């Protein structure tokens, strides 16, 4: 039975309060922040203008606990807001996410001006907790030990109109020694396939043409019911949804990556030729210390099978340099895998202690200067490989989905930017006709850099899409809102491109 205290408090739209959500960490947090924004808007709050920088009635920090000095960053930001809160009566500050799940009462002790602390399992309670803190005039700390509601059942304010995250599972059953995520997000819990497909169909009906299936370990999907082929079946089911043009997923784990998934990728036309497969280390010794349940031979075998089935696939990865006990020989094994795998891009991290993980107390911690030197060598090698792989794209004709805000220099260069099927970023000459984010443009690649491609000639074709229509409709609605007309139209959106999304925990 739902009580009045469980319902989101309604905020009088005549005195609508503003909110700002600041997100740190991985793609899970990015998606959770879409839910937090949706919850607040469902309760009557309105988004603060861009660049408000804490000048909102409610500021929410969605935190990450897996980065070094994550807590220092949080308390530094909270400290900067303290005087603003004093000068702005009624302002509220909330802290959620992984660091909140881990530190709990510590946050209010260190920053007593915080009004609400909530965890990864009860993000749906945010509006209620804010109202309770306002009424009772004291901080509300509520951390659930297990998931209260699957996040996808919550309201959502998505960030764009042509693509969306779709969560298929939460939590993780792995025990990697460098990762604290399972302790903070819990054991893996899979969502029902029918619910996933229903959400995708609803998004497509709203104009979305690209979805990214999201999970801490997406290809372990089905472990709840003992179906090892559940993920490949899900990919194939996505292929039958009319109007869904692009399907991506992140992040898989080599342990659970099976041949049926490769076959589904190759045989389902709207599953994109892109794979993000975390390596972490090329050394069997280090992989064992990390408690990664695969070895170099197994990893390279997967890459070989993917390339055989999908020759143009772009494969990206995560690598940790300087894990405790890593020798020069171990590091050279990582360099060897990078040379053999020919990653399109590698997101490389210097190992840093994550409090609460087994690796943090391991012997053989590597001196900072050694880690830095190895990191620089690996980055230099990968830059060379990325450039060589991108040069192979020159002369190819590609269909790009036009992106919003991904080309920082587009205005100065009179270009637009888009994503190729394999997720490579391509900057292209702006066509004479109108092109909207979500539309599809066909171009020929003329130049390659390590991290992007250029198509300097005229567009070969422009296809206006329902996704572009949705972007146009959303833009019109937001313009009307700024003018004071509340249309109440739904906001749908896009996940950050992979390079941004994987800059979080990198623990898959």
Kindly list the characteristics that best describe this protein.
single chain; 3 domains; 508 residues; 16 helices; pyruvate-formate lyase- activating enzyme; metal ion binding; OB fold (Dihydrolipoamide Acetyltransferase, E2P); seven-stranded mixed sheet; 21 strands; six-stranded parallel sheet; TRAM_dom; tRNA-2-methylthio-N(6)-dimethylallyladenosine synthase
How would you describe the overall organization of this protein?
There is one protein chain. It contains 16 helices and 21 strands. It is an alpha/beta fold and 508 residues long. It folds into three domains: 125 residues, Rossmann fold; 242 residues, pyruvate-formate lyase- activating enzyme, CATH 3.80.30; 84 residues, OB fold (Dihydrolipoamide Acetyltransferase, E2P) (Beta Barrel). The strands form five sheets. A seven-stranded mixed sheet has the order 19-20-17-16-15-18-21. It has a six-stranded parallel sheet with strand order 2-1-3-4-5-6, sandwiched between helices. Helix 8 packs parallel to helix 9 and helix 12 packs parallel to helix 13. The longest helix has 24 residues. The radius of gyration is 23 Å and the shape is globular. The N terminus is likely disordered.
In short:
[4Fe-4S] cluster 1 binds at residues 26, 64, 98. By secondary structure, the chain is an alpha/beta fold. Helix content is 35%, strand content 18%.
């Amino acid at each position: 039975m739902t009580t009045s205290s469980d319902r989101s408090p309604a905020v009088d739209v005549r005195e609508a309060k503003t909110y700002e959500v600041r997100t740190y960490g991985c793609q899970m947090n990015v998606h959770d922040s879409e839910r937090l924004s949706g919850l607040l808007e469902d309760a009557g709050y309105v988004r603060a203008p861009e660049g408000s920088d804490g000048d909102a009635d409610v500021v929410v920090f969605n935190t990450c606990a897996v980065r070094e000095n994550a807590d220092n960053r949080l308390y530094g930001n909270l400290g900067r807001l303290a005087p603003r809160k004093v000068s702005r009566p009624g302002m509220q500050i909330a802290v959620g996410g992984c660091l909140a799940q881990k530190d709990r009462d510590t946050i209010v002790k260190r920053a007593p001006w915080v009004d609400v602390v909530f965890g990864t399992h009860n993000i749906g309670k945010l509006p209620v907790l804010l109202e309770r803190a306002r009424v009772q005039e004291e901080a509300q700390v509520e951390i659930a030990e297990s998931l209260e509601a699957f996040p996808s059942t919550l309201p959502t304010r998505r960030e764009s109109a042509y693509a969306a995250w779709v969560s298929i599972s939460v939590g993780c059953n792995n025990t990697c020694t460098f990762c604290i995520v399972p302790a903070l997000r819990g054991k893996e819990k899979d969502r029902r396939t029918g619910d996933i497909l229903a959400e995708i169909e609803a998004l497509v009906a709203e104009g979305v043409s690209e979805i990214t299936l999201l999970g801490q370990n997406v290809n372990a999907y089905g472990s709840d019911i003992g179906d090892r082929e559940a993920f490949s079946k899900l990919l194939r089911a996505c292929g039958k949804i009319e109007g869904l043009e692009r399907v991506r997923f992140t992040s898989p784990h080599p342990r659970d990556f099976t041949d049926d998934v490769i076959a589904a990728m190759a045989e389902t036309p709207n599953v994109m030729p892109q794979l993000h497969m975390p390596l972490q280390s090329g050394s069997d010794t280090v992989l064992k210390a990390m408690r990664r349940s695969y070895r170099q031979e197994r990893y390279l075998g997967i890459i070989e099978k993917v390339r055989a089935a999908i020759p143009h696939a772009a494969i990206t990865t995560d690598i940790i340099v300087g894990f405790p006990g890593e020798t020069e020989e171990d590091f050279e094994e990582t360099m060897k895998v990078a040379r053999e795998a020919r990653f399109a891009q590698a997101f490389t991290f210097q190992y840093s202690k994550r409090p609460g993980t087994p690796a943090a107390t391991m012997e053989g911690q590597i001196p900072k200067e050694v880690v830095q030197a190895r990191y620089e060598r690996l980055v230099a090698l990968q830059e060379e490989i990325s450039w060589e792989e991108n040069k192979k794209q020159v002369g190819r004709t590609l269909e790009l989905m036009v992106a919003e805000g991904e080309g920082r220099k587009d205005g100065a260069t009179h270009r637009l930017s888009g994503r190729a099927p394999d997720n490579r970023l391509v900057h292209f000459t702006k066509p004479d006709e109108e092109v909207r984010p979500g539309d599809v443009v066909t171009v020929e690649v003329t130049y390659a850099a390590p991290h992007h491609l250029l198509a300097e000639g005229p567009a070969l074709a422009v296809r206006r899409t329902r996704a572009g229509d949705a972007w146009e409709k959303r833009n019109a609605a937001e313009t009307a809102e700024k003018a004071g007309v509340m249309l109440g139209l739904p906001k749908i959106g896009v996940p950050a491109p992979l390079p941004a999304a994987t800059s979080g925990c990198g623990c898959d």
